[in-house]
Each structure stands twice: as C-alpha cells, then as structure tokens.
C-alpha cells in the first residue's frame, strides 16, 4: 500500500508539469505538445519529429479526410519530391511568392546538376506539367487528383505543428472545362474541410474569401477556414484556391471542347496540413493538458485498474480486459494501463495530459458493486456504471463529449467576435487580442497593409456569414467595399 508520503514523492518527481495556460499560453502549448508525446524537436532546425501518439492522430485525420476526398470523386496519386527550378518560374506570381522559402538541390550524385531541383514547397508546377500530357479532350475532364505528401518551406521562425520547415499535408489538384465548374469545386472542397473540421475535430470555423494580398501565389481567388484559438488568435485551418487559367496557360494544359476548339482548362488546388493539429490543441486544451475530440482521438478510452498493492489483482485485470474487448467490438479504442510501478494518481495525470477523452477506473470497491467508475476528460465528471452497462454508456458519453467540445468552442468563438467601427477600436481590441474583430474594409491593399503594420492584425477573410452592415472602412474611413474579419494570427 502506498502511503501519502509516497504519493507526494510521486507528485514531486512527476516529470510532466506543464505551464499554466492562463499565464503563459505559448509555453503551455510547447509543454502539451512535447510532454503530451505528440512531437519532439529534431536535430535539423525547424523540422519536427512526430511521435507515435501524434502520428496516430495524423493517421486518423488522414483516414477520415481521405474517405471524404474519395467520396467526392477524387483519386490519390503521387508526384516527385523534386521540381525543376524552371517549372516554378513559369508562373510569375507563384515563383515570387515561394522564392524566399525554397530549399534547392544543386549537387547530386557527386556532380553539379545542370538544372537545380527545388524540394517541393507545393506541387502545382510538377503536377500540372503532367496534366498537360494527360489532358487532350473535354472527355478527359474533370481531372480530380489528390496527393498525400511532405512539403518543405524554409521558415525563419518555427513552432511545432504550426510552422515547421517540413510538414505533411494533402494537396488536391483539379482541372475543369469551365470557370463555373472550377469555382464550384473550390467551394465544394472548402465545404468538405468545414464539415471535417466541425464534425470530427469539433472545431468551429469561419469560411470566407482571402483578400488579394493574402491569396495563394498564382491563384485567381483563395478561400479559407479560420479557427479561433483560446488565446483569441486565428489559425488558418485549410485553404481552397480557384486558380483560374493562370497555371493552365503557363503549362499549356489545353483540351478540345465539344466544338473541337482548343481551350485552356480551369483549375483548383486545396490543402490541409499537420498545422490542423495545432488548432485541435489550442481550441480544446485546458490547464490539465490536451483534450482529444473522441472521433479523432488516437486513444478513446484508457482503463486504469486500481490495485490495492503493487501486485496485479487478477480479478480486476480480468474485468478490465473484458471491458477492453467489448469496447473493441464496438470499434472503440481502449488501452489498459496496468503498470504497477506508478500510482493511480500519476496515471490519471498522465492520461489527462494526453487528452484521452474517457477514463475507466476499476478498483476493489467497484468490483464489489459489479461496477466501474467512468471519468470524462472534458468536464472531469465521474459516474459509477454497472458492468453490463459500461459499453452503452461509453458510446453515449463519447458522443456527448464530441458534441460538448464543439458547442463549447463555438460558444467561446461567438462570444469573442465583435464589431468595430473605427481604427481606434480595432487597434485597442488587438493590443491584447480580445478575439476576432468584424468591420468594414475599403478593399485597398495599401489600407490593409497599413492596418497590419499598426495593429499586428491581418484580414483573415471576407466571411460568407453576414455579421452586420458596415458602411465605412475601419482603416481609412472611406466607403466600405467588404466586411472583413480582422485578427492576430498564427
Ligand atoms: Zn480603407
């Protein structure tokens, strides 16, 4: 039997202490990522190692989103990591946008290359060089391709998951016969991302169009999802681009239409990356650590048998194994933590830090009552449930946790969106960001840049949702052309 003194000693040596979220949000973030076993720093500056627990989360994201991408008619393919430098230069805005962050291979196989190879920062150019070979007729369209890959952007300042030199993502690339069809695809995929974010990640998002200066380099128009983190900053969670015919013209992707006339295709590209993991962490996490939404959690239930001494109790362990089997039969992932060298309190802390949505405790007292204790990670609420009702109750509670996380995040976001009528109001609200400001914007890039310079906030997007009528630009006071969402952002 462990004594109170032993418990205290355990707490003191507990290696997983995390900074207070309310006091130092940035340190809290780093602590939960590293101590929650999601990722670690690598020997290469700016690159991260995604640890098994974090990678399991990414695999769940991949599995669900991949299913949604395929359901909407897209097929997966894979293109080379290297892109001939000349390809990037074919679309002027594209190369200008990406040049500062390119990694370039000039020597390979011991020889200087005739043409340097860029490590892909995104794959439009390499993929579209192939589209030009594959598309001949309107019968070849639409061409709907998705790729799961790593990309490299040489970032100056990096943070685990949020901004890393190498990151993982999916990038969709499509070609169509008309502008309208490409626009429909662009918005359809933004809608798929929104559904995925809200229903699986429990992330409420604001969908809308990016300003000209914030759009993707080479796009005709960019649309984004913006999520609000608990420190009131925005995190761009996915983007979808209508590329118009910019790349089609640069790469000569043409087709013969029904009248046998040669036309350029209309294109889209869209992506979601490992950055979204940062959004999950900073939307749901609390003072105790991470909180994983059940539908995407690497582990949904942890079962902690509570032994009365340092010996495993066979009856308790049998009960735990039976519950784990029953949960597995309902496709619920469960793990038994039967370590004897750690106290139950240590284990509770550890699994709470890792954000496992539910804990099942089974001790001698529970056994005597043919019951177990269920503990929710989101509210901390405990309940005793009879053995024969455990599975049904866990299923119901996981659904309730999923709903509760989304509702809480949505309410929080709505409470932190506020209208601004003047520049003074915008500036004041962004000093210590109070949330997202909604206000009028004249549409001028110069005015937009000046607001960014003076407040540190950017136009996140021009939202589809109607937040009210704003007649004047908060930046310059001229007539407003749009209603925009302003925020400080990751
Ligand atoms: Zn203005």
Descriptive report:
The chain contains 15 helices and 23 strands. The radius of gyration is 26 Å and the shape is globular. Helix 3 (52-71) crosses helix 7 (179-199). It has three domains: 25-284, Bira Bifunctional Protein, Domain 2 (BirA Bifunctional Protein, domain 2), CATH 3.30.930.10; 301-398, Rossmann fold; 417-487, 2-Layer Sandwich (Translation Initiation Factor IF3). 36% of the residues lie in helices and 26% in strands. The model is unreliable at 1-5 and 7-14 (pLDDT under 50). It starts with a helix and ends with a strand. The strands form five sheets. It has an eleven-stranded mixed beta sheet with strand order 3-7-8-14-11-10-9-22-23-21-20, sandwiched between helices. The protein has helices at residues 4-13, 25-35, 52-71, 85-88, 92-98, 124-134, 179-199, 246-251, 275-284, 314-329, 344-353, 364-368, 390-415, 423-431, 445-455, and strands at residues 39-41, 48-50, 75-76, 82-84, 104-108, 111-119, 143-152, 166-176, 206-209, 221-228, 234-244, 254-256, 262-264, 266-273, 301-305, 334-336, 358-362, 371-376, 382-386, 417-419, 436-441, 458-463, 482-487. With 490 residues, the chain is an alpha+beta fold.
